[in-house]
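Review form for a predicted model. The reviewer records the input and the model, then writes brief findings.
Reviewer: anonymous (R2)
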Amino acid sequence: MEIGEETGAGGVDSETAQAGYDWKTSTEARLGEDKHGRERPLHTSFVKLTIAWIGKTKSPAIQSLTDEYLKRLRQYAEVEGVAVKDGPALLKLCGRDGRSTRRWLVLLDSRGKQLSSEGLADFIREHQVHNPVPLLFAIGAADGFSEDFCRQADFVLSIGKMTLAHELARVVLLEQVYRAFTILKGHPYHLGH
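Model under review:
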């Protein structure tokens, strides 16, 4: 599926439809439209979220999974996926140059803090409630981020002690961010864990 392609069941992914979850009647998810005319849940504070990675995607399978999870996340957040050239371009995207919109930078790095899926959901909820600055989750290149670079982040997150290929780490992050939003909204996706 391509980004922006409509799903079956009125804009709800097939997994959600099969689970019998009805977005149209959920009290938490009255629908509105985003700037592209796609339906999305209305919230008092809609999270702005960017997932950024350094370098071009080499694997079509990784790109397909990236697109799928970005599409799923659009039910819950104003989200974009962005490939950047290098670390300085990432910092510029975060507004560290003082010229662009400031974003709250969360770097993925094995030296960071590990959170459970529920802990990540709490982290996103707390940020949404207390901080109007958009969130930016960033995955480094194959060699990761230097310690100096990590010190420039607002938060350093680890998805585990095992080493993952950076493109695979992106997919794991996207799935966990999606899972976090389903936890926050009481969606049955997380119940099958």
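Findings: The chain has one domain: 20-192.
Further findings: Residues 1-36, 38-44 have pLDDT under 50 and may be disordered.
Recommendation: see findings above.
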